[in-house]
Amino acid sequence: MNRRYVSLLREHCARWLTRIRPLAATGSTKARLVFHSALRRLRHPTRRGVALTLAAVPVLFLLYVLALVPFTPGIGDIRRARADRPALILSADGKLLAAFKPVNREWVSLKQISPYMVDALIATEDRRFYAHHGIDWKRTASAALHTFSGDRQGGSTITQQLARNLYPDEIGRAPTLTRKLKEAITAFKIEAVYSKDQILETYLNTVPFLYNAYGVEMAARTYFRKSADQLDILESATLVGMLKANSAYNPVLNPERALQRRNTVLGQMNKYGKLKPAAYNWLTRQPLNVDFELQTTAPGAAPHFAAQLRKWLIAWADRNGYNIYADGLVVRTTIDSRLQAMATQALNWQTNQLQWIADDAWNERTGCWPGNELFQTFIRQTPDYRAARDAGQSDQAALRKLGTNPTFVRALCRSKTQIQAGFVAIDPRNGDIKAWVGSRDFSDEPFDHVQQARRQPGSTFKPFVYGAAFADGARPSDTIVDRNVAIPLSGHAIWRPTDAEPPTGRPMTLRDALAYSRNRVTAQLMQKEGPEKVARLARAMGVRESPLEAVPSLALGTSPVTLKEMVSAYSTIANRGAYLEPRMVTRIEDHDGKTLAEFASASPQQALPAGAARTLADAMRDVVNRGTGAGIRTRFGIRADVAGKTGTSQDNTDSWFILMHPQLVAGAWVGFDDGRVTLGNYWGEGAHSALPMVGAFYDMALRARAIDARAQFGPETQPARTVHPRRQRHFLFWRY
């Protein structure tokens, strides 16, 4: 037996005994005898004892490896991981809305990748790639010896690196023996499932290259503005050089280091016969020639809708054993691509008009100047201001310095004064969401003003008050005196609702009060019905996620809600009082077209008596025929049977308009993300900011016959006389 091994074993035992001797000294007489007996055997081991000890080490190691196997990916998981088949999200009319990819990657076959890329990869990362079965034992042993001597080196093969890339959570990246063993086991499994070419293809399509570029195709486009099959030998060597450390060898930020690393890769190619010496000498003298272009993922036709759908689909896939990134699911949604395009066009048209007004009101000479107290507040909330104060500047000095910096002022002003909007349309007959636009630009503003934003709905909340009254037997012809009222609140507070017009002191019908959006009359009706009843009705009709504070001012929309909730609730009115939960998906199929799941419309829940719903819809017709929403008739010339309601929150912070048609209910919200910024008394009103968006949408939808202009809600009163379309063309000073 090798004396060196025996000597090492004795040294190890001596160190162990030094640690446990104090423990033995405190034990019983029997324990001390056992300890001293063991001590004699360790100090004078027999050849048989040493042999058994050494033989036990590989056995224990093998048992440990076998114990790790269940904690590595299974063969089935490995087969699925290579397939890059994202879920496809289709509109109701079959148009592609989105593809759910895990990363910004476009999968290409090995034939579509430059052979220089493959040669550079193998020469640099794994020169015996075609000779091993997942682990290069020679390289592993060499790396271990260098590591023990203090010069740490990596010994992972391409297959092992692929295992890490595919399963970072299962394998991990910690420099431990357990991680290396899991990596090796997974590499063996991969080699058992895939051919060498498939491994190369998968590796080159999954490796990251910074700037959200995954895979060689996106890397080629990002750094050289070309496809992977067009990469030359220098470009291939540059990309392979990045694999050692993306950031350190980033050719955009660290060109000198990237050049040195590229030449190292060329040296490996020369060393292993992939380059001739003369070519190598010439190539190493060439510049990088990077042509950088950041790759962005196209947001798609309905990006906010797709973002909400992704959350729902992930949960469904997890429950049913599917992977939305690899199983090629086909999800058929309720979105109508024509209506989605119209909604996007209408929103962009109106918000662009309003942005001109906002820019005029909030420029460096008016709103966005250091003398404006609100703008000073904005400055104080910036990191630049906090940095100035931390540096010892006074409040006034920091404000003066930043306020006279035109670049800073312009950027801050723009961030605070960008008009935002949300738009959603629902078919009231089945709850299908037909259009969804969450902001002006998903890339700039991914925040969703349909589903995520909670804003005060203003007078668009009033129909719930009138609906509760009609459900209790009130009629639109019933009257309430238009007078000043003082409504006691909790404690000693008094609420005194006001209108733009002074009180008349005369009776006003409920129909007129709703048409002209009278706050004083609505507040008195709220007193009669009770805030709790109105809040319950609003929840039953569709406002089911946002909390509603059951106080008298709720009648004027003081509790923040989402646009989706409000349009859903108005759909309940259009559907004769029956609430239908909004539906996004009708069917899910596999990649072969087999139906995996179907989703029927939700069962209707009668939230408002049908008679009361018809009465409410009839009263809301007058909002459009002669009230605050008359622009639908006079400006847009819409003659279809429609009803709706405008809404403006306190201080003109939020602007709303929701319009009901028997086949489609659509609503819009317009405002700023920071509620302290407004458009003023005129443009801040829902009739002037949100209504045109909805009007333009319905005008396009009716012209395209996406909805039937002849559809009727049911029994109706004679509409008030309005301007004939041919006589009001001079009002149409707009284009969309």
Automatic annotation (TrEMBL):
InterPro entries the UniProt entry points to: Beta-lactam/transpept-like (IPR012338), Glyco_trans_51 (IPR001264), Glycosyltr_51/Transpeptidase (IPR050396), Lysozyme-like_dom_sf (IPR023346), PBP_transglycosylase (IPR036950), PCN-bd_Tpept (IPR001460)
Segments forming domain Glycosyl transferase family: 94-269
Sequence intervals crossing the membrane: 50-71
SUPFAM superfamilies reported for this sequence: beta-lactamase/transpeptidase-like, Lysozyme-like
Natural source organism: Cupriavidus basilensis
Protein name per UniProt: Transglycosylase domain-containing protein
Family: In the N-terminal section; belongs to the glycosyltransferase 51 family.
Swiss-Prot/TrEMBL keywords: Carboxypeptidase, Cell membrane, Cell shape, Cell wall biogenesis/degradation, Glycosyltransferase, Hydrolase, Membrane, Multifunctional enzyme, Peptidoglycan synthesis, Protease, Transferase, Transmembrane, Transmembrane helix
